[in-house]
Amino acid sequence: MMALAIWLKWFCASVKKAKNKQGPAVACAYDRIVAVRQLKVNLKNPNKHGAEQLRVYAKVLWHQGWRKAIVVSNQSGRIVTGEGAWLTAVKEGWPTVPVDFQDFASGQQELQHLLADNSLPQLADVDEQELAAILAQDLGGLDAELAGVLEEGHQKPELRPVSVKAPPKMAWVLVGIPLVRFSEINSDIERIAGLEGTIVETTVNDGKLPSGRKA
């Protein structure tokens, strides 16, 4: 009996490990199931996906399954939407992902769709009270981190005012010259002093910088 129990434990662990290697279940429409390594990212995508986001992304995909296929352009052969999901699959070692292949009239249209997919969700206005009620009442039994993902995903980025200092009004130049040679630059000083808004100060001492000045 002990040997049977050990074998059953090993068998269940092996099945679970094999299942995990295949990745989450696919629950969306798609054109083809494609090997992860065959896909290419769009190098112009400004969105960057950090390790923490990919970790949570994997958790959500395991929980929900694939609910949206990765969109790949028939023209460029590159990912248009779903780069975060693809990177998650790469990180987790999943062999395949669902892909929807689409046509685009031009490279510009492809890039426009990529940027719109990134930006449009951020423009939505969220009723924070209604969201809090949903999280507390309808999703009260949900995994705390998954609920946190939903809440964080609905938060709009905070725009903070930036204070810009006005540029300096005056530029000061300190020049030291032996007194016996002052006449050589006297005409230049007079010319500078004649410029509108200019302040010229002259002094004499034993060769040290004026008080409070540093070389």
Name some characteristics of this structure.
215 residues, Conserved hypothetical protein from pyrococcus furiosus pfu- 392566-001, ParB domain, 4-stranded mixed β-sheet, elongated
Secondary structure topology:
Elements: H1 2-22, E1 32-35, H2 51-64, E2 70-73, E3 79-81, H3 83-92, E4 96-102, H4 107-119, H5 128-138, H6 144-153, H7 183-193
Parallel strand pairs: 2-4
Antiparallel strand pairs: 1-4, 2-3
Task: Enumerate how many helices there are, as a single number.
Answer: 7
| DSSP strand tally | 4
Largest sheet: 4 strands, mixed
CATH top level class name of the domain at 20-124 and 141-153 = Alpha Beta
CATH superfamily of the domain at 20-124 and 141-153: Conserved hypothetical protein from pyrococcus furiosus pfu- 392566-001, ParB domain
Please indicate the percent range of residues in DSSP E strands (runs of 2 or more).
5-15%
CATH architectural category of the domain at 20-124 and 141-153: Alpha-Beta Complex
- Helicity range: 40-55%
What does this structure look like?
- This protein has a domain at 20-124 and 141-153: Conserved hypothetical protein from pyrococcus furiosus pfu- 392566-001, ParB domain (Alpha-Beta Complex), CATH 3.90.1530.10.
- Helix content is 42%, strand content 8%.
- The protein has helices spanning 2-22, 51-64, 83-92, 107-119, 128-138, 144-153, 183-193; strands spanning 32-35, 70-73, 79-81, 96-102.
- It is elongated and about 105 Å long.
- Mean pLDDT is 80; it is low at 10-19.
